Amino acid sequence: MNDVQLFGVGVGLLARVLVGTVWVVAGVLKLPAPEDNVRVVRAYHLLPEGIVPVVGHGLPVLEILVGLCLLLGLLTRVAAVLSALLLLAFAIGVGSAWARGLSIECGCFGGGAGPAANAQAKYPWEIARDLGLLLLSAWLVGRPRTPWATDNRLLPVLAATETETRAS
Fold this sequence. Notes:
7 helices, elongated
């Protein structure tokens, strides 16, 4: 394995662990207060009221599932696509709140999306964080094979085919 391949493997493993950990932590922190999650979704004023409770209750579970899949390297490409879509939606949501002058907590790691005194100053950092994680997720969409991934055991034929393709 040459230096470029080794770099790619390292980035992929780092991306899987970092993004997966962020998703699990974010989801677990939201689980104890489902009513806060609904308030967070509602505070952005982006979704029809009829689906706000569904999204507010389901989002933490989805975040945990995506994170666990990434940490385990299970269905990595699918989990990375979901991760990228969620991160894009979150960045758009925060950007929309910022553009409309809303001063709310993002609710990214729990919290009730109440008024936040310094929200306008935090929005750029929240968007930057989401876009950084989005780039790592995109890396995994393109290069889902990483060391110590469950996919390598469950789909060994595919792993061998990808290795042969990269070598040629």
